[in-house]
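Worked example (supplementary).
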Amino acid sequence: MAETIKDTLHIARNPSAPRTFSQKYWDGTREKKVLLQYDNKSGKYQFYPRANSIYNGRRSVLEWREVSGKGEVFTFTIARRAREPFRGHEPFFIVLVTLDEGVNVMANVVNCSLEEMKIGLRMKPYWHPLPDGTNMLMFEPDRG
Amino acid sequence: MALRDAAIVGYAETKIVEKSDVDVWELGAQILEELLDKTGLDKGEIDGLILSSSQTGAGNNFWSQTTADQLALEVDYCNIVDIGGCSPAGAVARAAAAIDAGLCNIVFCLYADTQGRENNNRPRGFAQEWTQPIGYMGPPAAFGLLSKRYEHQFGLDYRALGKLAVAQREHAVLNDLACEKLRKPITVDDYLNSRMINDPIRLLDSVMVCDGASGLIVMSRKAAEKKGYTKCVVPIGYGERTIYRASEAVVDPTTTGHKPAGEKAFKQAGLTPKDIASFHPYDDFIIAIMMQLEMLGFCKHGQGCDFVNANDFRYTGNLPLNTGGGQISAGQVGLAGGGTNLIEAVRQLFGEGDKRQVKDTKNALVTGIGGIPYGRNWATSVAMILTPNS
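After joint prediction of all chains, the assembly is encoded as:
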């Protein structure tokens, strides 16, 4: 019989912990928007948010753009041991999803079985509320 | 060339234990005493101190000078190398550079950590914001993601990985300084059947955090000759790379900084992978050994498992691997763990490998892996080629 991989929705999580240069990302999640840093000189996106462009080191070239948050699984693992507050809630997925804009985002997954999970699987955002009114980006299979 | 003008004239190592009974500075004092005994140096002749990273020392922004004070070392050069598992080999390269630049003459490299007894690490990085909130447990999760991607691109022969685990364990059984808990032989089936931690990373893929210390004395070859040291080990090639492919948003994690670091080390040494007599790679997870074989040029990218199946990695084999057991089978001395494989390589080249002495001591290749960035492989890769002076 196939093993059940748990979602992590009932685990009590801390509020988000933005830095000065990632605040806009977290602000966007309040409206369930995926905002990415975009380097308008190189024409490329980056994630996680940084204080400068990973492409040319400059700050002035960065702007924020809303994206769909859709993408595909780059790789995944099943966490079978975790620290608090995740301890006792294993096993759960950790995935790296390559968004269509060409960045990798690490996240938890909901509504997905072990049989369905595979590299290349199309994914879409699933928003999980945090105590401070921001939302955590998770993913679920994009079956539509 | 600066690097090969330096010489390692002595080495020391403590027993590796799960949790140290004594303070980290007591371990440091133990290493210093062993080095003074072995080299015949007076404490006052040491004028340089280079430390590795240390979880116990974390949080003290004056760790190297505090340690100098505790050990009563009056030095002209005092430094900590904070590139994690790359710190010990990195310290040897920096000692050579400091001596070459005239900053100091005789350097004590000390690699001590008691993470099990006292972990003071409060890392400031991406984790608080991006990975702790999703239950990502650091290195095992990172290597789970990495292994799954490798498997997708090339396939992964787990029996081949098991072969590496078994070879290292055989060596730990022969190493009296290895952590006792790990000194029991294992089979490939034991490896395959060990429980999953972060699929497909198993328990027997992983290091166990331990406490301990090791260290070296580095001076110029000229000074070593003048002092009449008949045995010493010379670093003849070194390469280091931090945040490989930093300017890319999506990085193929099966390619690593060991490619540029290895190319540089081999070029400096005037050697190729075929010339390597024994291999002492940093081993936090078994797959990292296989990936280093690929990136350092022992075989092609994606063919690491075939190479593993075709070669013999026991100390009696054609490419002896981590003959002290590596960290996976000897125990990982916190952030000083890179010292374990480095010291073993030096010990072998001194011809003091005892029950596990390799036959061919014309050189040894040591590597380091340090730090885990977001969604890539590891932060720093180093490669160092050593040769005996005689």
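Two points are worth noting when inspecting this output. Residues 23-141 of chain A form one domain. The helical segments of chain A are 23-30.
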